[in-house]
């Protein structure tokens, strides 16, 4: 079953911002990454899903229901954590969380306590007095306290220290095991790589690829770096399948996808001093998507 | 219901401060009545020396200025000015406060419709105004009864005071429509002070010209105190106009807010 189904979603703002013709689906039980540079349209897409803004054309369904028409009903089962959290400053953490819980028709007190304990959050402080990281924790507890079936996170990790980030990811994985579907937007690849099953890559308001993380990692790209006794001609490795070729004195590096035998044969002809062949990390793979077409 | 209570709690402090301020102003002013009444004749001569336009601008009517009701209508124009600022603040804050303090994301991603949110917030603002009015009216009545030299009609007194609440309702609605139309209001107070004072001065100017039609331009002139004292009722045409403004502004606010894009800040 598809928890989120986005069809040809377009939101234009007059100028260049916005999203164009976005389509992808998130299946039940997935942790789905939504990745792209700042300003690519991640938040616009998410805000449309939450009916904070309305699409220019196209539609989105959540739990099989139109996200605008059935917004109220859908939101009962959604937990949302915005990238920047600002809450009613003059309230205590406890009061804010209780206020948040009062929107859902269930008793969340136990869950609030559990979550606050996991995230090491002091419930009796005033929100005003909290640091950015602690405010973020309030956001996390607020987003999860009603045990939603769909968790939408918009760049959730900013402001969290590595230890808290780890706890937060563990928490998300636990929620996921209990059956929650997660949409995780980020511009930090390592966290997406660490957490997600599938990922949609967005660039300048358009989806450029939807892939399994494992496929992305298994793709045939290899990262070559070799040191030779004397500098190589700049175009020695230039051929179909080669990317990011850099010749820097005696050191040559490039990425390659294709029949490895061609490259190995070429290397065999050289007098080499050192050789590294590595799996590229996602960051390097994604750079292709990120780079603007000239 | 939870939004309503939350908002009401948020308004608690401002409601108390506004109510007390209005009480202090009216009590202070009414306490002068005894000495005014004593020297009524002298004052009348003094005031008669002012040009008629000035007297009209300040709403001073020599015929009834020294009856307690006539005297009361003079501070009332300042009271309504203050009340209008309070109401406009509340109205303008309804939507813009959430957007400015970035709490809109919190509220709008909860399982409530935008209509429910707006209704709850509007009702909370309304209750805050009614509380202010009741506190003010009780205090004003007590002081008036304390300082009176002759008996006066409590009904007229109530109607005069009621113009405060009516003007507040108009400015609450005006503030609300402003808050949904203007995308980002940095300071509620600037917007509301500017608007309220603009209408106040338009009202003063229209009073000096004596042109009845111009009175429609400023809600401050919809509830003419001399008319109320004479007829013990409001002028129907202005009452209807005021009601029309309130209904139209509120309906338009709902319509716009439900369709509005709420952007990340």
Keywords:
heterodimer, A: 294 residues, alpha/beta, Rossmann fold, Alpha-Beta Plaits, 2 domains, 6-stranded mixed sheet, 4-stranded antiparallel sheet, 10 helices, 30% strand, B: 265 residues, mainly alpha, 11 helices, elongated
Description:
The complex is a heterodimer of chains A (294) and B (265). With 294 residues, chain A is α/β, with parallel strands linked by helices. Chain A has 2 domains: 2-217, Rossmann fold; 222-278, Protein-tyrosine phosphatase receptor IA-2 ectodomain (Alpha-Beta Plaits, 2-Layer Sandwich). Helix content of chain A is 31%, strand content 30%. Chain A has helices at residues 42-49, 71-75, 93-101, 109-118, 132-144, 162-177, 189-195, 213-218, 260-268, 282-290, and strands at residues 2-12, 18-27, 31-35, 57-62, 65-66, 78-81, 150-154, 181-186, 198-203, 206-212, 222-228, 242-248, 251-256, 272-278. In chain A, the strands form 3 sheets. A 6-stranded mixed beta sheet of chain A has the order 6-7-8-3-9-10, sandwiched between helices. In chain A, β1 (2-12) and β2 (18-27) form a beta hairpin. Chain A is elongated. With 265 residues, chain B is mainly alpha-helical. Chain B has one domain (2-259). In chain B, 77% of the residues lie in helices and 0% in strands. Chain B has 11 helices and no strands. Chain B has helices at 2-31, 33-38, 40-48, 52-57, 68-100, 104-108, 114-147, 154-181, 188-209, 225-231, 236-259. In chain B, α1 (2-31) packs parallel to α7 and α5 (68-100) runs parallel beside α8 (154-181). The longest helix of chain B is centred in the middle third of the chain and has 34 residues, at 114-147. The mean pLDDT of chain B is 87. Chain A binds chain B through residues 43, 47, 50-54, 71-76, 78, 80, 82-84, 86-89, 99-100, 102-104, 142, and chain B through 2, 6, 10, 101-106, 108-113, 259, 261-265.
């Amino acid at each position: 079953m598809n928890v989120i189904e986005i069809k040809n979603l377009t939101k234009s703002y007059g100028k260049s911002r916005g999203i164009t013709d976005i389509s992808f689906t998130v299946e039940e039980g997935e942790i789905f990454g939504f990745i792209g540079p700042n300003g690519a349209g991640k938040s616009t897409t998410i805000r449309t899903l939450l009916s904070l803004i309305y699409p220019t054309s196209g539609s989105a369904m959540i739990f099989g229901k139109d996200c605008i028409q059935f917004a109220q009903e859908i939101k009962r089962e959604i937990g949302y954590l915005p990238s920047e959290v600002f809450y009613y400053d003059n309230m205590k953490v406890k009061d804010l969380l209780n206020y948040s819980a009062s929107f859902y028709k269930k008793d969340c007190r136990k869950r609030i306590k559990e979550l606050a304990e996991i995230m090491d959050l002091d419930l009796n402080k005033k929100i005003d007095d909290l640091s950015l990281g602690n405010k973020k924790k309030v956001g996390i507890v607020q987003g999860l306290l009603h045990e939603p079936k769909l968790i939408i996170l918009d760049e959730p990790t900013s402001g969290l220290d590595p230890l808290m980030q780890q706890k937060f990811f563990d928490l998300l994985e636990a929620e996921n095991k209990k059956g929650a579907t997660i949409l995780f937007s980020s511009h930090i690849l390592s966290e997406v790589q660490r957490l997600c099953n599938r990922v949609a890559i967005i660039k300048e308001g358009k989806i450029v690829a939807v892939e399994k993380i494992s496929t992305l990692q298994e793709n045939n790209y290899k990262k070559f770096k070799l040191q030779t006794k004397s500098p190589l001609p700049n175009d020695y490795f230039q051929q179909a399948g080669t990317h990011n070729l850099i010749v820097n004195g005696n050191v040559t590096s490039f990425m390659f996808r294709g029949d490895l035998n061609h490259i190995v044969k070429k290397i065999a002809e050289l007098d080499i001093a050192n050789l590294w062949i590595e799996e590229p990390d996602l960051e390097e793979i994604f750079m292709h998507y990120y780079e603007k077409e000239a | 219901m939870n939004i309503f209570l939350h908002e009401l709690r948020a308004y608690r402090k401002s409601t108390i401060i506004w109510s007390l301020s209005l009480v202090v102003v009216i009590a202070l002013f009414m306490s002068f009545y005894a000495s005014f009444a004593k020297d009524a004749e002298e004052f009348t001569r003094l005031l008669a020396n002012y040009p008629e336009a000035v007297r009209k601008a300040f709403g001073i009517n020599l015929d009834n200025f020294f009856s307690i009701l006539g005297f009361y209508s003079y501070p009332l124009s300042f009271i309504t000015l203050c009340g209008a600022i309070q109401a406009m603040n509340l109205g303008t804050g309804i939507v813009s406060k959430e957007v400015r303090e970035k709490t809109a994301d919190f509220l709008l991603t909860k399982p409530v419709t935008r209509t429910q949110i707006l209704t709850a917030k509007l009702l909370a603002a309304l209750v805050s105004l009614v509380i202010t009015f009741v506190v003010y009216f009780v205090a004003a009545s007590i002081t008036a009864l304390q300082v009176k030299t002759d008996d006066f009609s409590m009904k007229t007194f109530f109607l005069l005071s009621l113009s405060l609440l009516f003007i507040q309702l108009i400015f609450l609605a005006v503030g609300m429509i402003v808050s949904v139309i203007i995308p980002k209001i940095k300071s509620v107070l600037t917007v509301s002070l500017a608007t309220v004072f603009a209408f106040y001065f338009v009202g003063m100017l229209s009073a000096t010209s004596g042109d009845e039609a111009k009175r429609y331009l400023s809600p401050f002139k919809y509830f003419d105190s001399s008319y109320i004292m004479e007829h013990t009722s409001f002028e129907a045409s202005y009452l209807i106009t005021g009601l029309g403004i309130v209904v139209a502004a509120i309906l338009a606010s709902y319509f716009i807010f439900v369709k509005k894009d709420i952007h990340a800040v």
